């Protein structure tokens, strides 16, 4: 656990067009987490609550347990223009103080935010690297916080200089299991034969040490994927994968093991 002060964090997309798009694609989970312009907001609120409980931040938990409608009203006061998309970052400290940062977000095809995700034939895949050093799982990897040293180090090792780079690095625990991406949740095609109606995609279980991501929770709730331990040794150079997070939705990726190729 970090010896320095840190906050719990969740980052998501605000987009006024989201509710119109998602009503065309039925949700299997109830209540529907996509019924506001804030992408998967109920899951973000839950994630922050779970982190506050884990760290025993009672004041933060009291703030986060407010009614969902009340929470939306609070966030609305930080959106400068409700007619355009925003990247919204919620930062909560142990006293229950919540800072909300809203920055302009690039326009993205909103179909990328719902599953089943359809891979566009013109998509340019993100480069997906595997970290060259292990990361030890802890509360700071299970819960998203401002203590991002392990993630920053992994990105530096693989030469990813900017959050705008179309690349991510997969963190690996000391047992060689994929935990998560530095800014995304990864999904891989199942290796074994799938039965009819079974998901063809798998994502690492939380027991491997990665973050309880909101888009990950959504993909599992929609039966888009199931959990399965994936090791770095299981990955194949050049294989297609998917990535997701609360700001960009679902993204096509390609595993890069041979960086000289």
UniProtKB/TrEMBL annotation:
<protein>
    <submittedName>
        <fullName>Aminotransferase</fullName>
    </submittedName>
</protein>
<dbReference type="InterPro" id="IPR043131">
    <property type="entry name" value="BCAT-like_N"/>
</dbReference>
<dbReference type="GO" id="GO:0008483">
    <property type="term" value="F:transaminase activity"/>
</dbReference>
<feature type="region of interest" description="Disordered">
    <location>
        <begin position="193"/>
        <end position="213"/>
    </location>
</feature>
<dbReference type="InterPro" id="IPR001544">
    <property type="entry name" value="Aminotrans_IV"/>
</dbReference>
<keyword id="KW-0808">Transferase</keyword>
<dbReference type="InterPro" id="IPR036038">
    <property type="entry name" value="Aminotransferase-like"/>
</dbReference>
<dbReference type="Pfam" id="PF01063">
    <property type="entry name" value="Aminotran_4"/>
</dbReference>
<dbReference type="InterPro" id="IPR043132">
    <property type="entry name" value="BCAT-like_C"/>
</dbReference>
<keyword id="KW-0032">Aminotransferase</keyword>
């Amino acid at each position: 656990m970090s010896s320095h002060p840190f906050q719990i964090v969740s980052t998501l997309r605000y987009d006024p067009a989201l509710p119109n798009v998602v009503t065309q694609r039925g949700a299997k989970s109830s209540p529907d987490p996509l019924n506001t312009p804030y992408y998967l907001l109920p899951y973000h609120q839950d994630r922050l609550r779970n982190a506050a409980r884990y760290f025993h931040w009672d004041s933060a938990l009291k703030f986060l347990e407010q009614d969902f409608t009340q929470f939306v009203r609070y966030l609305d006061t930080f959106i400068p223009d409700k007619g355009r998309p925003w990247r919204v970052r919620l930062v909560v400290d142990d006293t229950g103080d919540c800072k909300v940062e809203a920055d302009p977000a690039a326009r993205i095809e909103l179909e990328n935010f719902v599953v089943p995700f359809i891979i566009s034939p013109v998509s340019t895949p993100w480069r997906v690297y595997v970290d060259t050093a292990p990361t030890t799982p802890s509360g700071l990897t299970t819960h998203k916080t401002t203590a991002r040293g392990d993630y920053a180090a992994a990105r530096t090792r693989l030469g990813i200089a900017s959050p705008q780079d179309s690349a991510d690095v997969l963190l690996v625990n000391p047992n060689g299991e994929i935990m998560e991406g530095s800014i995304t949740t990864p999904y891989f095609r199942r290796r074994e034969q799938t039965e009819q109606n079974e998901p063809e995609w798998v994502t690492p279980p939380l027991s491997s040490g990665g973050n309880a991501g909101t888009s990950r929770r959504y993909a599992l709730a929609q039966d888009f994927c199931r959990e399965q331990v994936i090791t770095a040794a299981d990955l194949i150079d050049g294989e297609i994968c998917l990535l997701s997070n609360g700001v960009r939705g679902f993204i096509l990726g390609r595993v890069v093991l041979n960086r000289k190729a």
